[in-house]
Write a structure and sequence with these properties.
About 45% of the residues lie in helices and about 10% in strands. The chain contains 8 helices and 5 strands, in the order E-H-E-H-H-E-H-H-E-H-H-E-H. The radius of gyration is 17 Å and the shape is globular. A 5-stranded parallel beta sheet has the order 2-3-1-4-5, with helices on both faces. The chain has a single domain, classed as 3-Layer(aba) Sandwich (Rossmann fold). With about 220 residues, the chain is α/β, with parallel strands linked by helices. About 35% of the residues are buried. About 5% of the residues have low confidence.
Length: about 220
């Protein structure tokens, strides 16, 4: 596979236990096996000072205002901005295990009512998106779609703060809202994540190839609007 002038920025998104980490690992191995420079960036990045604060929160050992934790998630992504752009400029493709879209929907889903949220109120999707405006925009967002029942049947479900049925239902509705947003509607590539690992991997790989094709056509990395 020929390397593009710059690397492709590929975000892997989806509901909890949809298999994002597994698919990212398989993708990284496959890209490298085909001599395509690639690296993996997970969000939140729990190794940074801000990431360590987020990790403590996610393990439910501390309490923070919902707006404050959302801004920490965004700050964690801004910590990585310059590194992401430098890596892409070097010709290396970056796989993002979660990105701004998870940040937006998981924060907005904390409201007591489901989507659609008030357009400009606290923890609306509009408010939650605003701190991420200007971050690198993915060439493609691969969304791993899985039913709530199938996700709940997978090992480890329910161990972290957000893995509760009502919360996951709101997250699903808000992801659907995000995928319909005209600002980045063209970026989404939906994969049925309910099949076996190999079937899902092949469908995801098709999305990655499309993302690389788009990167070749776009010399400059776009910004989130």
């Amino acid at each position: 596979m020929a390397s593009p002038t710059r690397g492709a920025l590929i975000a892997i998104e989806g509901l909890d236990r949809a298999g994002k980490s597994t698919q990212c690992s398989l993708l990284l191995d496959r890209l490298r096996a085909e001599n395509h420079p690639a690296t993996l960036q997970k969000f939140p990045d729990r190794t940074t000072p801000i990431g360590q604060m987020i990790n403590t929160y996610l393990q439910s050992s501390t309490a923070l205002d919902d707006r404050a934790i959302h801004l920490l998630f965004s700050a964690n992504r801004w910590e990585a901005r310059d590194s992401l752009l430098e890596t892409l400029a070097s010709g290396t493709t970056i796989l993002l295990d979660r990105y701004i879209y998870s940040g937006i929907v998981f924060s907005a889903a904390k409201q007591s009512h489901p989507s659609p949220s008030p357009p400009h109120g606290p923890l609306s999707t509009s408010w939650c998106r605003s701190p991420d405006v200007g971050l690198p925009r993915p060439d493609i967002v691969i969304f791993l779609d899985i039913s709530q029942d199938a996700a709940a049947a997978r090992g480890g479900y329910g161990q972290e703060r957000y893995e509760k049925a009502e919360m996951q239902a709101r997250v699903r509705a808000l992801f659907e809202e995000m995928r319909a947003d005209e600002r980045d509607k063209e970026d989404w590539w939906v994969v049925d994540a309910g099949g076996d690992v190999e079937e899902v991997a092949d469908a995801v790989w098709a999305g990655v190839q499309e993302g690389i094709r788009r990167a070749k056509q776009r010399p400059a990395v776009r910004a989130i609007e």
